[in-house]
Amino acid sequence: MQLKEIARLSVESLFSQRLRTGLTVLGMVIGVAAVVLLVSVGHGAKNYVAREFEDLGANLIVVQPGKSDKKTHMGPPIGAAQRKMTTDDVRAIERRALNLEAVSGLVLGTVSARNEDSISNITVFGTNEQFPRILTIKIALGEYFTREEDEYRRRVVVLGHNVAQELFGDENPLGRSIKLNESEFKIVGVMAPMGDKLGLSFDELGFIPTEAALKLFNDDKLFGIRATASSRVSIDDAVAEITEILKERRDGEEDFTVLTQVSMMESLNTILDMLTYVLGAIAAISMLVGGIGIMNIMWVSVVERTQEIGIRRAVGARKRDILQQFLAEALGLSLLGGSLGVGGALTLTYVLYFIFPSFDMRAPGWILGPAFLLALVVGITFGVIPAWRASKIETLDALRYE
Amino acid sequence: MALLSLDSITKLFTRGDEEIRAIDGLSLEVEAGEFIAITGASGSGKSTLLYILGLLDVPSAGRYLLDGSPTESLSDDRRAELRNRFMGFVFQGFHLLPRASALRNVTMPLVYSGGYGERVPEPEQRARAEAALSTVGLADRMLHLPNELSGGQRQRVAIARALVNRPKLLFADEPTGNLDSRSGKEILALFEQLNAAGVTVIMVTHDPSIAQRARRRLVLGDGKLLEDIRAA
Question: Is pTM, for the whole model, over 0.80?
Answer without folding.
Answer: no
